[in-house]
UniProtKB/TrEMBL annotation:
Keywords, comma-separated and alphabetical: Cytoplasm, GTP-binding, Hydrolase, Nucleotide-binding
Keyword field contains Acyltransferase: no
Organism expressing this protein natively: Genlisea aurea
Domain of life: Eukaryota
Name of the molecule in the record: CP-type G domain-containing protein
Biased composition (Basic and acidic residues): 86-99
């Protein structure tokens, strides 16, 4: 290869590297400007935070009449009929849970490409996340369903989205004392949606707390 071609290739590589560095700096400045703790887990909110979030959502995406995050969250399974037996309520709850199981899903990252701006990507991800929150809020109206606390910080889900996209093997750590409770089949399904060749591994933790015959099973 002639010397001038080598020099041209080197300049192109340096230029590309500098462009990538500049894009990274711009993204970093954008997230720092949000003035929030990006990786702070949030599984509950107080009344004031809920009102602020609902108002912000309404201003961005919905009219006041369509705001749905003002629905109170119910953490118990109080029955509408005092005459129902405990066994009857349990069976009814199991039927409702089976009926709505397909709605209890991990939020999906909206389609994206490298040409999107940081602001556009941020907006699309926020919109998809709020749609997911609304769907859960509608489920919480059903007094026969019990939703356990879930992650409400979008940036935590962003970390999961990006890890799934970059990983060939997804490892889920489950407690040996109740592994199926901690296993998330939808996470496995989501990984296959991204790439059918992605593999999932269950890592059974605290197995030493169980007797041998249980571990063998």
């Amino acid at each position: 290869m002639p010397k001038n071609e080598k020099t041209g290739l080197g300049r192109a590589l340096v230029k590309h590297h500098n462009q990538m560095m500049q894009q990274s700096k711009e993204k970093g400045k954008y997230y720092r400007s949000q003035q929030k703790k990006i990786l702070e887990s949030v599984t509950d909110v107080n009344d004031i935070e809920a009102v602020i979030e609902a108002a912000d959502e309404a201003n961005r995406f919905l009219s006041n009449a369509e705001s749905s995050l003002k629905i109170p969250i119910r953490l118990d399974s109080a029955s509408s009929s005092n005459e129902s037996t405990g066994e009857g309520r349990r069976e009814q709850r199991e039927r409702e849970e089976a009926l709505h199981a397909s709605s209890l899903r991990i939020p999906r990252r909206p389609p994206w490409n490298a040409k999107m701006s940081v602001e556009e990507l941020e907006e699309n991800e926020r919109r998809a996340f709020l749609d997911w929150r609304r769907s859960l809020a509608r489920l919480e109206e059903n007094e026969n369903l019990v939703l356990t606390p879930f992650e409400k910080n979008l940036d935590m889900w962003r970390q999961l989205w990006r890890v799934l996209e970059r990983s060939d093997l997804v490892v889920m750590v489950v407690d040996a004392r109740d592994p199926l409770f901690y296993r998330c089949p939808d996470l496995e399904a989501y990984a296959r949606e991204i790439d059918e060749h992605k593999r999932t591994l269950l890592l059974v933790n605290k197995a030493d707390l169980l007797p041998l015959f249980v571990r063998l099973r």
